């Protein structure tokens, strides 16, 4: 957190050179007309970057930015007339010294102004941010012939450049309030990830200066807290129509998605049935394969048995043929021996006669 610890005022209102030391419990308490609002206005000048279009001096008293001017504060005007002015020319410095309560690193933010009774408006010499530097009151002053006078702006600018260089930093001198405030808010933000809103800051700052007793919380929030953003009815209606069209498209897409999901479920059912049918066919084919395999095994066994029996039969046939041939040879030899014997011819004649007699006998039996 950044804490404001000192305010340096040089030739501002009735102050020639004054420092105010602040802490978390500081308060500005004094009778009416004592100059309390002048201190708040000094803060206002720096924290609004000297932007006259934004500043509302003496806001608690209901004043406006025309009631008192920056030039009046520089010249120390407290009433009308030459007698109601503290100085004819002024080189005014307002410096605010902040310090990070966690790291202890200081930051000085300030404004240098000039004014003269011969000029209708004040001059802004510069807006400065000095990172790492906590300026002291004496650094705004010089002694000339025993008098303390404000440093000339050029001299002061050279001095703050040296002070920043001593701590390894560079002074930030901004040409306008917008850039000054953006840089200031960036350096005073609560966390590195925060993104300050300049417009919201300006409104909150002015509302804080103008804060009164809150009678109507709703009115307070709408007028002092919430940002003014008038509703563009035509644009709002166009957006509403767009939202309706988007809603209709979303509904159409939802219906399409539902239809697609229904089709997907049907396809999933069909795919499941097809898978089951394919599984059944595969199972039937597997059973048929097993059956054919068993039949093939049986046929192969029967074939092996038949081939073995055929081989045995062929071997037996070959043996029988050999035996037949042997017997034929023996018969031929026996016939040859028989024919060569003495009674073979007579026996043959007897056999022939015997055969004819048997044929006649058979014929007679038939008759």
Number of domains: 2
State which percent range the strand residues make up.
15-25%
| CATH class category name of the largest domain | Alpha Beta
Order of helices and strands: EEHHEEEEEHEHHHHH
The CATH topology label of the largest domain is: N-terminal domain of mukB
Give the end-to-end Cα distance, rounded to a whole number of Å: 159 Å
> Describe the biggest sheet?
6 strands, antiparallel
The CATH level-2 architecture of the largest domain is identified as 3-Layer(aba) Sandwich
Low-confidence stretches are: none
Structural class: alpha+beta
Number of helices: 8
Radius of gyration: 64 Å
Q: Care to count the β-strands?
A: 8
Percent helix among the residues?
40-55%
Shape: rod-shaped
| Average predicted local confidence, pLDDT | 87
Output the strand order for the largest sheet: 2-1-3-4-5-8
Brief synopsis:
This protein is α+β, with helices and mostly antiparallel strands.
How would you describe what is shown here?
The structure is a single chain. The strands form two sheets. The protein has a six-stranded antiparallel beta sheet, sandwiched between helices. It has a two-stranded antiparallel ribbon with strand order 6-7. It has two domains: 2-196, 3-Layer(aba) Sandwich (N-terminal domain of mukB), CATH 3.40.1140.10; 242-337. It is α+β, with helices and mostly antiparallel strands and 367 residues long. The protein has helices spanning 36-47, 70-75, 153-166, 177-188, 198-209, 217-225, 233-339, 344-366; strands at 2-12, 15-21, 89-100, 106-116, 123-131, 141-144, 147-150, 172-174. Strand 6 and strand 7 (147-150) form a beta hairpin. One of its GO terms (biological process) is DNA synthesis involved in DNA repair. InterPro entries: P-loop_NTPase (IPR027417).
